[in-house]
Amino acid sequence: MRRKTDYTGNEQHLQVLKESVRRGSNRFWNQWRKNHPRVVPDLRGVILAGAWLRAFNFDRARLDGAVLDRADLASVRLEQASLRAADLYYANLSSVHGRKANLSGARLGNATLRLGDFRSATFLDDAYLNHANCQEANFSRAKLAGANLTDADLTSTRFDGADLAGAQLDGAILNRSSFLGASLRSASVGGAFIRHVQTDRKTDQRDLAVDVHVVWERARGRMIEFDQAQDLRLAQFHDVVDEHGAVANLISASAKRVVLILGSISAEAQARSGSTGGRVARARKGTGGVRFPWPGGTGGKRHRPLHCGHVAVHRGRPHESEFRAPGAAGDDSRFDGAGPADRPIR
Description:
elongated, 11% strand, single chain, two-stranded antiparallel sheet
């Protein structure tokens, strides 16, 4: 991790800040800011790693190249401040007021930006937000082209109108994230968790990279290819299909849900069924057995079964040889017709 040793800012500004930090309060610094409203604090290259700086007023301040790793910057004012190439690894930036701040090239790996206001902020020059916690933060109209948001938590984060062209969102959590009117063109979202994202017609989702792999061609040698999608939801589907065994597990899980739903028959529904003709399939294994309704009764016409994976479901009465428990094999998992003493369920 790079460390800067040359302080290039204003020495007087630094002394005022250090005095406030020494007192363990933001009052001294914030009062100085009020008394000198036209002064732009110049703190370039300042080293305050691990410092307590909660609710300090750094609006319009020059903090380029600052070392603020693990610093507590919760509720700090950073509107129109410049933090180009600043080190903010593991820093606490929750509830920060950072409208129009410039964090281009800043390193915010594993930092907490939860509930932060970064509207119209700039995160260019490969800004690094890997593993950052950005839950419920607001990046509307922010410039994040090419930013690294790999494995970041973007739950309920707003990117409305933001520029995320070419951004790296691989492995990120995009749960209820909003991208209304945003540009995601050529962004990479491989392995991202995508659920309930908000997009509209103005959202540019062209050429989303959902998978990257290296191939060899005899004429050209090694080439890097991208599997692309034109929609975040399709990107998520591609990820599910690409995962080994994911589709089979999904089908199996869905089939099991059907069994559970059909088996959840209330006593009132069973009482209404009366003694009308019909058959009930019962599992041999298990404590209570799972009961299935067979509309049409014993006299109904048999139809071809509808298959969902390896579970067969009939519209008419069941056939003993065609029913097996999901995922099971062998005669022990077969469903047999119940005896006439059992009442049918509809």
